[in-house]
Write a structure and sequence with these properties.
Chains A, B: Residues 139-330 form the D-glutamate N-acetyltransferase-like C-terminal domain. The structure is a homodimer of 341-residue chains. Helices cover 31% and strands 18% of the residues of chain A. Chain A is of the alpha/beta class.
């Protein structure tokens, strides 16, 4: 994988830390890594009482390090999204064993008693993946080589990351030169690099996006995870800066046909597909005049087979581009539409 | 003035610190404060060699404090935008005299030797005006009482702040209940409150904008300083978040008719007035469906009288709203257009 310049960078492979978690819903990060970064996950490690099973060899940090692991990744979300005090011993032991510690939780790793000292002793990194790199540039706006496809959405949390991962996988399976590019914390853990764009200083959003998908070979595709929505009353600024810095040639509109209101902002309706496509194309063309909608990804998880099929046909007819659900349908048409004739 | 909740807050009146500056171009902050916050500027203070003359009484910090000053504001920009080491003695003396210290320069005030201790001793604040408040909320998107007019632009640095200040002054002169609301550092010093929205974490841009113009009396107008431009390849995310959080009823498009390229991004053209008006209205309507363009402010400083007049007539004809140059023309028509019938 061509590493992006100026992004957070993780050392792979990983041992996935599962604490004493028993609820699989609190282990979404671990399952996501196992599913989407399978070749980078070589072990799991639990505390007494933990029951999450990823199907990976169970190894103490030292044994995982001996087996080749470079980082211990916290794969579960404890109550409040914070690191419990009693994890400190295990985390210090992992650092002492030569493992980087990687966390997407709220507690800064530096603040855990003894951990910074252990990391300094062992020469390992403590990586809070939500924390952006210290020195981000302002966006240059200059066109760069390589091709880019960006996920954009009618709301947050409706499948933009999943769509990007599935498309990157399908493109590589067809022998295309393609990489998933991460713009949020789980994506960064999967890709091993990226920037949580919603956490950067406002002046640098587009600059961070330029770092996430730097110049590349002319035939290379960056498949870029989206964030937020241009139709979201709180987060549209993040979405627009990410779009401008990404300079996408192609846009995939992600949508959940069962959703009529913005999640947690119920006064705001989800936009119509045509309105959404129009505004995304118009704004993307500032930094790439050739930007065009090439597909629509529907999250049909709440629909039965027949209703899902109807929704896909309807979306395809409305927008004139291939519609797909990465969990349900083949992606050949979408990939062909991205790559073009 | 109805103080905004959750913004940076400055204590007025000010003594303006001019260092040893001799170049008026490096004292724009001081001149701006003298011109736009005249009632809040009661003294100036210089170091040996300084020649900037604001026409204010020259007073040492202690004498300024005795005369009623509450804050010493750094009003000049030294080389590199940093505070020279030899200013420390004067700044410490000012803190010891009971003055808050206010700076828009890059050097954190906390880092100046002895200053944090002096501030703690004297119980005064050190205010880096570019630094946002620690706890900003995410935007709620909920409509709030009061009326708002937002400055939007075809580029950065073409008169959005000046236009907002001039309009707020003209509205108050007509007896309207109106306040300038600051979104950048000089504006914050003038208003005594505000948030530098380009310096907040990306997720909180619109939330910061909601704090800058909180709920107010039904007949009250916030006149909101703009930042960046939706047509700027680096900063459009800031502009969009600010627009959404501001929920403007009325938009003033600010433009420099002599500018054809985005400053420092010469590959990017300045948009046409109609295109700009269309995108600002469309995006503003997400959070305020009644948002509409009500005026166009032209910076005609590079044109002679006849050319300026032509440009104003042309802009008015193109957009169908009153055109004005706050440095050259009366603002009655613009104010009438903002307030409506």
């Amino acid at each position: 994988m061509n590493q992006a310049v100026g992004t957070v960078k993780l050392r792979q492979p990983y041992v996935l830390f599962l604490g004493e978690e028993t609820n699989p819903l609190k282990a979404k990060t671990a399952f996501g890594l196992r599913d989407w970064a399978a070749e980078s996950c070589i072990a799991q490690t639990r505390l007494a009482g933990g029951t999450i099973e990823l199907g990976l060899p169970e190894r103490e940090p030292a044994a995982a390090a001996a087996a080749g692991a470079r980082s211990l990744v916290i794969g579960v979300t404890p109550p409040g999204g914070r690191i419990p005090a009693h994890w400190a011993r295990m985390l210090v032991a992992a650092a002492d064993a030569g493992l980087d510690i990687v966390s997407g939780l709220h507690t800064p790793l530096e603040s855990i008693p003894g951990l910074a000292q252990a990391a300094a002793r062992a020469g390992v990194q403590l990586v809070d993946v939500r924390k952006p790199p210290a020195e981000l540039p302002r966006a240059t706006g200059q066109r760069r080589s390589g091709k880019r496809v960006a996920m954009v959405g009618t709301d947050c949390a409706l499948g933009k990351k999943y769509t990007a991962l599935a498309l990157a996988k399908a493109m590589r399976a067809q022998g295309l030169n393609a990489d998933f590019r991460a713009t949020g914390q789980t994506g960064i853990m999967i890709a091993g690099a990226g920037i949580a764009v919603d956490a950067v200083i406002a002046d640098f959003i587009a600059g961070a996006a330029e770092c996430i998908s730097p110049a590349n070979a002319a035939d290379h595709w960056d498949v870029i995870e989206g964030q937020g929505s241009l139709f979201h009353p709180a987060y549209a600024g993040v979405t627009l800066g990410l779009l401008h810095g990404s300079q996408p040639d192609a846009l995939i509109l992600c949508h959940d046909p069962s959703r009529t209101r913005i999640v947690s902002w119920p006064e705001y309706p989800v936009p119509g597909l045509k309105d959404a496509a129009q505004l995304y194309e118009q704004t993307a063309r500032l930094t790439n005049p050739a930007a065009r909608l090439v597909g629509v990804s529907l999250n049909t998880s709440s629909l039965d087979e027949a209703a899902a099929e109807q929704a896909l046909v309807r979306a395809e007819r409305e927008l004139g581009v291939p519609a797909f659900d990465p969990l349900r349908t083949r992606l050949d048409m979408a990939v062909a539409s991205i790559v073009g004739p």
